[in-house]
Amino acid sequence: MSYAIFSMICYCVSILLIAPTLARGKTATTNKMFVLLTALAGMILHYLSLHYWQDTTPNGTTMTLLEVSSLLSLVIAILATIPLCLKVRTISFLLPIAYSAAIINLIMAEFIPSQMVQLHQHVFAHIVLSMVAYSVCFIAMLYSIQIVWLDRNLKQKKIMPSADIPPLMLVERHFFRVLLSGEILLTITLISGAFYLAEAFEPTNIHKALFSFFAWIVFGVLLFGHWKWHWRGKRMIIFTISGIILLTIAYFGSKIL
C-alpha cells in the first residue's frame, strides 16, 4: 500500500506543477524537469504497487480486475509522458487528466475488492498489444476533449492566442495521427486475437470480439470521414468517446456484468 500512496503523491505533485501554467493559458514548459522527475517516480512506484508478480504461475498471472485497470492507467500515463520528453507542445493539457486517472485507479485497486482474472502466459503478447492499443485510443479521446476545450475558450476569449498556446489545427493534426496509430494497433490486436484466441467466438468471449470490432468500425468511420469530408468538431468527439466506450465494454464488460 505504501508504494501506491507515494505514487499518488508524486502524481499529485506533477499535476500541481502543470495546472497553474495551463490555467494561465500556457504550456507546461515551466518546471518541466520537475514534472518529468515526479511523474517518473510516480510511474515507477505505480508499477511497484501492482502485486501481479506475487501471483505468477506457469500458466500466467493472476490479478484483480481493478489491478488490470490500474495497470492500464499506468500504460496511459507512460504513453502520455513520453511526448513531453520530446517537447510535443500539445501534450500538456492531457497530462493532468492521465495522472488523475492513474490516481483514481490506484485508489480503487488498493481499497476496493474485485474479482480475480487470469492473464494467460501464451497470450501475453496479445494482452500487451491490446493494452497499448486501448491506451493510444484513450489518449486520442483526451486530444478530442482538448480540441473542444481549446476551441470554446478561444471563441469566448477566456484565453488569448499566443506563442504558448498550441494552434488548434496542430492539436487536431496530432489527434488524427494518434487516432490513426490507435486504429492500426487495434487492427493488429484483432488479428492477433483471432490467431491466439481460438475460443474468441465462444459464448463467454464473443462480446470481446464484437465490441472491439464495433469500436474499430467507429474509429475507422471517423478517420475516413475526416479524410473524405473533413469531419471535425462535435462529430469528432462523439465518435471518439463512443469508440472508447465500446472498447472499454469489450475489455471489462463481461467481468463487471
List keywords for this structure.
mainly alpha, single chain, 3-stranded antiparallel β-sheet, 8 helices, 5% strand
Count up the domains.
Answer: 1
How many beta-strand runs?
A: 3
Tally of individual helices: 8
Helix proportion of residues, in percent?
over 70%
Radius of gyration: 19 Å
Strand content: under 5%
Low-confidence stretches: none
Major sheet summary line? 3 strands, antiparallel
Ends apart, CA distance between termini: 28 Å
Shape: flat
* Average predicted local confidence, pLDDT: 85
Task: State the secondary-structure class.
Answer: mainly alpha
Largest sheet, spatial ordering of strands: 1-2-3
- N-to-C SSE string, H for helix and E for strand: HHEEHHEHHHH
Could you please describe the fold and organization of this structure?
This protein is mostly helical and 257 residues long. The chain has one domain. Helix content is 73%, strand content 5%. The chain has eight helices and three strands. The mean pLDDT is 85.
